[in-house]
Amino acid sequence: MRRLLARLETEYRDKAPLSAAAAATTILEGVKAGAWRILVGKDANALDAAVRAQPENAYDYPDLAKIAAQGPPTNRPALDAPAEGR
């Protein structure tokens, strides 16, 4: 079991879509710019867009996951992209 967990941890770290350094850079740039919220990674942007598109479903996790899995709003013509700096 320990070997399996160690392998999963390594695979997650090595295959992550965004490195820890890139995430830290995004966060620090947002803080320096005075952003009131900072989204890190495509998944965060997709989830944010999904919640904004259908806020009444924010706690309907299966439906929200389906919407977020469609990708960022640029891939979904029916949804508007979040405002600049969000």
Task: Describe what is shown at a glance.
With 86 residues, this protein is mainly α. The chain is built from four helices and no strands.
What does this molecule look like?
The chain has one domain. 56% of the residues lie in helices and 0% in strands. It contains four helices and no strands. Helix 3 (42-53) packs across helix 4. The longest helix is centred in the first third of the chain and has 14 residues, at 2-15.
Descriptors:
86 residues; mainly alpha; flat; disordered C terminus
* Major sheet details: none
Q: How many structural domains can be distinguished in the coordinates?
A: 1
% residues in beta strands: under 5%
Ranges where pLDDT stays below 50 over 5 or more residues in a row are 76-86
Number of strands: 0
The run of helices and strands is: HHHH
Report the helical percentage: 55-70%
Counting H and I runs of at least 4 residues, what is the number of helices?
4
Derived structural class? mainly alpha
